[in-house]
Write a sequence for this structure.
């Protein structure tokens, strides 16, 4: 009986020990599970960039990378200032983040220059190859990959022409020397040349310069295009819209925000959708994929936004068949 009692006690102690070790190991595993860190350089406070960031996070979450569970974000906003952007990216490098998410061509070029080792996923970069962000859409050749907000100028102009077909001279308004819009300008000029339409280059260094150039040339142009670039997005659209309305000249834009603020119309890439694609790309990289092995993607489709209030103000009648094609009508 004594032997059986001793044996039973030993077995009980052993079982308790096994349970204790198992619980301890399980606790350690949970405690030691790595939380991945993503540095987010949001370009500025405009809602477009917030929509894009929401899409990025949702794309990650769809693939199992959920904020507060196994990933955390360090989000900083340079408010479109390149020097601040550089400092932000440097802080991400110092923090040894696992991945960087950048927005716009200027912001992404800064990130590319600061680090060649940390994976960078970008979005809202219209022409990443032409601007030197990556080597090719199929394979970046570096530590970057992402999504374009590229809508062909042919489609943008053709939609506008359905509403206003009397253009002989088009003012192309953009920031001087910004790679995205310079490429866009060249594409528009090449496309419209066979139509006999002259493209006037309003390449501004700042908002005051933009206003001066527009006021000097507005009487000699028939219509205007607001490019997809950072100067348009930080006050340039308001300048173009104000002068366009004053002289009753129709315009079209590459950014939804411009139409919401008073541009006549635009064929738009959905910033939330391309952000979501970027999030899925980031998930693949966090799972072990190389940036250079992934495809830099474009939006699956664009959509038409029309501002009927602006149309009324400048005396333009939008055909019913065009309104029927619009995804969104700003009233």
């Amino acid at each position: 009986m004594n032997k059986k009692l001793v044996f039973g006690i030993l077995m009980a102690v052993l079982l308790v020990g096994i349970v204790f070790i198992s619980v301890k190991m399980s606790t350690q595993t949970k405690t030691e599970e790595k939380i991945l860190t993503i540095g987010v350089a949001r370009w500025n406070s405009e809602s477009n960039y917030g929509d894009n960031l929401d899409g990025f996070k949702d794309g990650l979450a769809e693939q199992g990378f959920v904020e507060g569970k196994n990933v955390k974000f360090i989000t900083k906003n340079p408010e479109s200032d390149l020097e601040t952007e550089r400092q932000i990216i440097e802080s991400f490098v110092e923090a040894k983040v696992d991945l960087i998410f950048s927005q716009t061509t200027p912001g992404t070029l800064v990130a590319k220059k600061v680090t060649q080792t940390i994976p960078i996923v970008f979005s809202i970069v219209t022409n990443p190859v032409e601007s030197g962000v990556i080597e090719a859409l199929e394979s970046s050749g570096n530590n970057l990959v992402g999504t374009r907000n590229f809508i062909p100028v042919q489609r943008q102009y053709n939609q506008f022409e359905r509403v206003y077909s009397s253009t002989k001279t088009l003012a192309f308004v953009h920031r001087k020397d910004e790679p995205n819009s310079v490429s866009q300008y060249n594409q528009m000029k090449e496309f419209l040349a066979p139509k006999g339409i002259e493209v006037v280059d309003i390449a501004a260094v700042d908002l005051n310069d933009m206003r001066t150039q527009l006021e000097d040339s507005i009487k000699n142009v028939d219509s205007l295009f607001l490019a997809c670039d950072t100067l348009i997005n930080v006050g340039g659209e308001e300048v173009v819209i104000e002068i366009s309305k004053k002289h009753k000249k129709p315009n079209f834009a590459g950014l939804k925000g411009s139409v919401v603020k008073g541009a006549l119309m635009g064929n738009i890439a959905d910033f939330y959708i391309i952000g979501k694609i970027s999030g899925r790309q980031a998930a693949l990289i966090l799972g072990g994929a190389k940036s250079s092995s992934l495809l830099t993607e474009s939006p699956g489709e664009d959509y038409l936004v029309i501002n009927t209030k602006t149309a009324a103000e400048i005396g333009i009648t939008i055909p019913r068949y065009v309104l029927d094609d619009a995804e969104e009508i700003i009233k």
Notes: The radius of gyration is 26 Å. The chain has a mean pLDDT of 90. Residues 21 and 27 are 10 Å apart (CA to CA).
